[in-house]
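Dear colleague,

Thank you for sharing your sequence with our group. We've completed the structure prediction you requested, and as agreed, I am returning the results in plain text so they can be pasted directly into your records. Please verify that the sequence below matches your submission; if there's any discrepancy, let me know and we will rerun it promptly.
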Amino acid sequence: MESSIGSFPPYSYWRWNLRILWVAQLIAMVGMSAFLPFLPLYVRYLGHFAPPQAQWWSGLLIAAPFITAILATPVWGIVADRFGRKLVVVRAAFGLGITVFLMGLTTSVETLFVLRLLQGALSGFIAATTGFVAAETPPQRVGYALSLLQSATATGSVLGPLLGGIISDIVGMQWTFFLVGLLCIISGITVWRFVRESRKPGRAGVLSVLTPFRLVVKAPPVLGILGSIVVSQAAMMLPAPIFPLYLEQLQAPGKFLSTVTGISVGGAGLMMALASPLWARYAERYGHRRTLLLCTTAAAAFYAVQALTPHYTLVVISRALVGAAVAGVLPTFYVLLSTHAPAMLRSSVMGVGSSATLLGNLLGPLLGSILATSFGMGWVFGISAALMAALSLVNPQMRWTVRFLLRLLTSRQ
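Please find the predicted structure tokens below.
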């Protein structure tokens, strides 16, 4: 078995790497999602806060890693292009593992906040694996590979809260952080031992940290893709702060509200995991623009159903269908982004794309809370539908489809 970097042709081991990174990302996502639902409870455990204070701290803790990751992710992308992408993936896994492990030792919410900021700055595991796979996979199979990675993310987000809840109930919340830290370190060791990178580090050593940003500014298509990523992620995250409350408003039984919420979130994650590879195969056969058109149009329709439905059961069903629809959105945008990036800058540009994703993840919940407070919770889902519909309307494939339908209608008259 060759272990030296650069000792085999490009793309020789892309399938092998994809399998290892799928397992590593699944482990990391199980770990990251194992404690997130319980952060508000951990805040209460760390201090005697009044409800408004606890909610304020919980919001800060959830937002903290996004704030630092938006700034740090492109920098780590440059490091990957300069010194090796595998190194950055391993660094991300260890950064996540160490910071989360330390969270289990903290005794104050202020220290926990600092560690969450460090987590965003030092981690970026998903961004690192995305950049690695985009660079080390044959161009015609990048969509399939990134979609398969997303299925690992979706599966981990379903399994993580279940594992975290069981551990918290049996041995306490602090042990959840310890186990998560250990899982992430195991993930990093797995990548270091088994993943093979075809490119020698240092090949892009002359690049500046600003190089990918200059490329973005000079390339309007790249700017458009990044803007679309922000809009799509914001649309998906808009309902996050109010989803259980919306179910309750639509007559979900209070006694089983957590269960109904868990079924809704888990169902969406499961459908996303199942649909991601299918959308990738569809994109390889029929094109990425058509895939985006179908995904965003379907998502808009299902969000509209959630906005207008009179009963929570339809929300649960349409939430799962939204998961299936959006499964093809982000991987397809990433594929389009990678096609506009030079090979030596691919990790850097994908890092900028990951920052756009994080920005959408940050803006979505904030905007969702404002909309719910100002206009009502139904409007949150309506705006999600409108944003997805807007992405459909600006898709070049949509303009072609409209012209085709108009010609078809006029020819029959």
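Summary note from our side: The domain at 1-196 is CATH 1.20.1250.20 (Growth Hormone; Chain: A;).

Kind regards,
the structure core
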